Amino acid sequence: MATWRIGSTVLRKVVEAEFPLPVTGALRTADSGLLDAYPWLAPHFAGPDGVFTMSFHSVLVDTGTRRILVDTCIGNDRTTIPQLLPLHTGWLDTLRELGYPPESVDTVVCTHLHFDHVGWNTRLVDGAWVPTFPNARYLVPRAEWEFWRTAPASAGSTELSDTLVPLIDADLVDFVEPGHEVAFGVRLEGAPGHTPGQVAVVVESEGERAVVTGDLVHHPVQFAAPEIASAADEDPALATETRKAFVERYADTGTLVIGTHFPAPTAGWLTRKSEDGPETGALRFVVDRG
């Protein structure tokens, strides 16, 4: 469970599960050797035959006065997602062991409403879905809600009846816009394309900065080749433009980029490749083909 410090703010990775996936399944590419073209991906993000590990985790942002949970993974006991059998993980216990019992979390940020980002919004208790974080406000991008509440049930990427509707019924949801200030030094940044209302989460403290990506990327190779869409991108062209803008905004700025689906070490810095190659001694995400 990685920990990063941005000024006086602490960010903690809380892993639910990790699964091996072929790059041709996770991204819209038929090139199983794609990852071999970028040696800097090894050893963390490139395995044999184009298979890599996809992580499903949350990021807990602890400012000292606020406890903000970014995304809540898949959740236990879900039977409404055809891609997966119901999970029975110790994710909630891990959160407690890190010192964050669910009652202590004051804010949950849903970067978007795909099933693997909202599952622990609720939990099954005596046959009913109840809020996992009863003292938290759940922040949902308004454009996400407007899109998914009318999306065909066959879409298969989300299910709101057990992950969001119980929270709305309990009056725990705030619908917000990009730019929303979650807390001092924590704000939402628009990242549309993967879904219409997706946001990234920017954390700033004492002159340092980190960004939790949401699903604007699923794999670091998309920083180098932003035109390669994720398999679940709703609007691939817009998602490409979002990735390009993200790289322009944060490359060579010292901003720590925390990938929502990246396995360990999960975080790195966007850097433009020099003639001598990427800087050594620290994990970097190279962002051009030079």
TrEMBL record:
SUPFAM superfamilies: Metallo-hydrolase/oxidoreductase. Pfam families: Lactamase_B. Residues 55-261 form the Metallo-beta-lactamase domain. Keywords: Hydrolase, Metal-binding, Zinc. The keyword Protease does not apply. The keyword Hydrolase applies. It comes from the Bacteria. InterPro entries: MBL_superfamily_lactonases, Metallo-B-lactamas, RibonucZ/Hydroxyglut_hydro. Belongs to the metallo-beta-lactamase superfamily. This is MBL fold metallo-hydrolase. It comes from Yinghuangia aomiensis. The lineage of its organism: Bacteria, Bacillati, Actinomycetota, Actinomycetes, Kitasatosporales.
